[in-house]
Amino acid sequence: MGPLEHWARWLGIEGGSVSASERAVAALGGFCGIGLMLGVSSWLLDLTGAAWVVASMGASAVLLFAVPHGALSQPWNLIGGHLFSALIGVTCARWIPQPHLAAAVAVGVAIGVMLLARSVHPPGGATALAAVVGGEAIRALGYGYVVAPVLVNLLVLLGVAVGFNYLFPWRRYPAELMRRGHQAGPGAPPPIEHEDLVFALSQIDSFVDVTEDDLLRIYELATRHSAHLAPADLRAGVCYSNGKHAEAWSVRRIERFAGEGGQATVSYRVMAGQEYPGRGVVSRELFSQWAAYPVQLKGNAWQRVVA
After folding, report:
1. 3-state helix, strand, coil in the chain (%, to 5)
2. Fewest C-beta atoms under 10 Å: which of 32, 48, 60, 269?
3. Residue 290 DSSP code
């Protein structure tokens, strides 16, 4: 490991990156969401108060449009995180006369409540803070601050996030829309079991901003990176899976081979998943690139055949 890589890891700089088009989509979504919210907040509060509230919502926009499938970005986290924090912030502002102490207590209690309610949303801390130090315009609202502008802005941002991200099938929001739109075929085997993920996360004993579906997808991509079979490994009469996730998953059964050498072809029948029912003919080389591993049907589930 070179010195640059060492410091990058120490600083937490991730090695991966998203495409330029994905960055542009995320930026445009944030622009639309905050543009609408700023208009709403300016109408309800003076410009100073509006700036404090939109500041916390701006942080939420980063999550909703840059990482729409993240655990911290989901609707319950967004709504619960902000609303609980707003209630706590207003209460602290009312009952703790010392502003610095009130601000610290508001943020600390908000963190604890979000963890307890499973609604961790980091920008909620700014919403609690704004209720204490956001100025007279916000303090004058009292508990009305929770409804307007906080709840109103949440609904605006949530509506934009759902509508805008729906235009792009790979980033539908909330994450449940991705799960419903990408169901695996009958008997599709998960790469690892749900209970395994729950156990692994419990051993980490820290909040991880990734959904179970994302963990499965990461695991699948990692294990499939070099999992394809060689053309000579293919056998007639054997079923093969492409090892993919959700709706892209498929099982094919090799019916017969034809030709020799570079002209060899494979006739196959789709047994489950994508393109079922169907048949096709491809070169032996292309089929081996498609196939990840052999599978067999046991009961109602396709299971990987372990050599």
Report:
1. 60, 10, 30
2. 48
3. H
